[in-house]
Amino acid sequence: MRRSIANLNLSTALAVLLMAASHAAAGSYNVVDLGALPGGSTTGRAINLAGDIVGSSGAPQSGISRAFFWSSRQGVRSLGVLAGGDYSDAFAINHPGQVTGSSNTANGVHAFFWSPVSGFRDVGTLAGDASSRGFGINDSGQVVGYSSGAAGVRAFVWSSRTGMQSLGTLGGNDSEAYAVNNAGQIVGISSASNGKRAFLWTSGTGMQDLGVLAGDTASRALSINARGMIVGSSFGPAGGHAVLWNNGTIQNLGTLGGNFSVARGVNNAGQVVGESAISLGPRAFLWTSAQGMQDLNSFIPASLGIVLTAALSINDNGQIVAIGATVADPAHAVDLDDPHHPGPTHAFLLTPAGATLGQR
Amino acid sequence: MFTNEKTLIEFCAKRGRVTIAEYIVFAMVLSSHLTFAQVTDPSLVGQWSTVQSFPYMPAHTHVMYNGVVLFWPTFDVGNNPQLWNPSTNGVTAATFAPYNIFCAGHSFLANGKLLVTGGQDPTGNGLPNASIYDPISGTWTQLPDMNQGRWYPTNTTLANGDVLVVSGQIDPSIGNDALPQVWQAGSNTWRNLTTAQLTQPLYPSMFLLPNGKVFNAGPSQTTRSLDTTGTGAWTFVAYSKYGSRDYGPAVMYQPGKIILIGGGGPTNTAETIDMNAASPAWSYAAPMTYPRRQANATILPDGTIFVSGGSSGSAFDDETAPVYPTELWNPLTNTWTTLASVAVYRGYHSTSVLLPDGRVMEGGGEKTGATYQIFSPPYLFHGTRPTISSTPSGGLSYGQTFFVGTPSASSIGSVTLLGLDSTTHTFDQNQRFNQLAFTQTTGGLNVISPANANLAPPGYYMLFIISSTGVPSVAAIVQLAPGSSRPATPSNLSAAAASGSKINLRWTDNSNNESGFSIERSVNTSSNFTQIATVGAGVTNYADSGLTVSTFYYYRVRAFNASGNSAYSNTAKAKTLAH
């Protein structure tokens, strides 16, 4: 069965469909505001092929944050917190709808694994450690993140079958893993003798330094697709730039005009999303090899009163989860120079207009 | 109009007879009028200056030990630090920081420099940078980067002069930085508290406790304390009562005692906890008259807390419901008093700081902009202010008795020591209050500095002497020296004339580490001392000879060693004989 955006149940009180029908340009998007848990602020971080989205919602500046799961049928719902905890975040969702993130406990923070079947589960830590966080999950249910203890901070991979194992570092004192694909390739950041470096870890090669753009001093990888394409950022005196690592080469994806951009998600078509600073502040972008970097705000009607400040994830249907602000928000008379600060952050699902969506 | 009770009596006399109902209505009118009269009397409600302008909004504001106020504004113009001199009211541009310091954390170091952590990159995400601003040279020194970016972190200066940094958002993909780090002043390195990772809200309210741990009082309802030794550990303490109090100030009004004020909904409630108790628990304090969020809270020299600005509206920064009246909380009586109203709305990104002269500057706010007002609290309208004529020239050690010269010694009712404010987003990361024990002595006060560095971390402080009627002096800036091994202060100095040209001095040696004592003298006055001699360690007498007959000579002594000088002893005087 194929499902189009027109078939989505939009009756949930929290989901507001803002149709972009008047925008005739190719590549325009239908926009759905995901809504929010009490507190009014939502950051959507990851989207799977079914269009389910996870992230954090609440009033994060107040210490109220709950990992959430959003679906078109049920809207935003809280995944809760671990026992004794008071703060949780969801960072990734896989094809079967399993989720990872982190939740405070009474005296620390632990990575969690959530599934519709098993519910909320504490992933634990590396042996002897005190805390952990989960940032990535693949379709096998492998979770990656970091574990922290007296010995330092270590990137880990976890599965319910094998438990948690350390991925080591690039020679420094700490590492953090942010994404894993279905081949078990893992990316993240590690300290090395020459600074902070994006890494790629595979079971065969271990942890490898992905390098930086010429002249830069640090880098970070946030996402990897099934083809092994990796996106993130390279930082240096000239600012930061969204980058794509592909087949051993690093490519500068440019900016929307300033000297600062970050790539946050990549799908299997090689489409990349992130944000780039312009004179009016941060703006969400979509990058393709054919079109280069484009401001996603140019694909939604200005009449919606929305400013998309960052795009965090894109699935293979081209659906994007982005964050931003609404100008008309009564709780935040947003200044367009400053769309995401300080008031409620809105999370939006962007679905290509007229798209025929594949199923999960 | 009825101006006083006499008017009421006269009215009744003219009427000959009034009913109870008439009397009640009349009394209400009179009461209302008296309330109005109180609002305008600065000795009761204080007084605000006119609204004045700054070149930029003071969104991050710091009172430096040289008396100059450093501040900087918001967003993409955040890296425009300004220097405001309250004495001259002049403003000059400070040196640009190496990056945008908007949304940074900040607290003062033992040497009076300002440690600034994190900031905002062009995409609005956290910066991993840290820098130190030197008030004297006006320069920035960049430090090693922190582990990740931090946007909205909180600094807490620790007892050994190191600084704890917690929270701050990295970016939307990774969320908040869960790793507490300690900047180690001695080695200029970061120590990671890797067994104390915790997701904290932005700009959490953190306080160094008398037991050396750091308490996270809000805005989360779950409150915990952090042991910063080794790789760190959190301990659950208690749940606060109201719930989340975002953009409500938290203040440690006495060592270990914290009050949460307003915020959230917004609410007018306040609640306190005594972390010195065996089982600390939150309990409601008296509520304010006005609900408010985005207000500022400033400890005044007398230990009361001045709350100003904020909004009672439901929106995040709701200028449609500004709270103009200010309020003062007295921790001794747990009562609030309404004070004079601000002229404009002070909301999100407004700040307030206590100036060394006892006034309060409040300014900024996104809805109001680059303006400020100065508040003169009621105590400045209660008569002559005591004056401080001298304080120790060097740093003070902990538990040290030191001499504070004042011609007002006999009228002093209390001596207080306040941290220099460094505030943003309704939370002052450097605010601190200590009441100091003291005794009156000739020409001044013998004051005892805080017993240890948990009560007052090393650094510069405002020292106030306050009259028994509640009028504070202008502050003297004193330094609590880190790890000071300065000698203890000599005491019981006496002077006795032996002849027309000789006076014998004796004193008590209270130190076991002095290199010697320096003796200072002035002629016919208790000021303008000059050193006349030094003597060795353990010596407790000196004969001053070659003097003029029938002349008053004043003396004071202090111990010294390689670390510096002690405070001065009491002043003693004697008159040489006539022949």
Number of strands of chain B: 48
Shape of chain A: globular
Helix content of chain B: under 10%
Strand proportion of chain A, as a percent range, falls in over 45%
CATH level 3 topology of the largest domain in chain B: Methylamine Dehydrogenase, Chain H
**Overall average pLDDT of chain A:** 88
The overall average pLDDT of chain B, rounded, is 91
* Sequence of strands across the biggest β-sheet of chain A: 2-3-30-29-28
Q: Unreliable stretches of chain A, pLDDT < 50, 5 or more residues?
A: 1-26, 328-342
Query: Could you tell me the radius of gyration of chain A in angstroms?
Result: 19 Å
Biggest interface and residues each: A-B, 67 and 52 residues
Could you describe the 3D structure shown?
The complex is a heterodimer of chains A (about 350) and B (about 575). With about 350 residues, chain A is mainly beta. Chain A contains no helices and 31 strands. Chain A has a five-stranded antiparallel β-sheet, with no helix packed on it. The N terminus of chain A is likely disordered. With about 575 residues, chain B is mostly beta strands. In chain B, about 5% of the residues lie in helices and about 40% in strands. Chain B has three helices and 48 strands. Chain B is globular and about 85 Å long. The N terminus of chain B is likely disordered. At the A-B interface, strand 8, strand 12, strand 24, strand 25 and strand 28 of A face strand 14 and strand 20 of B.
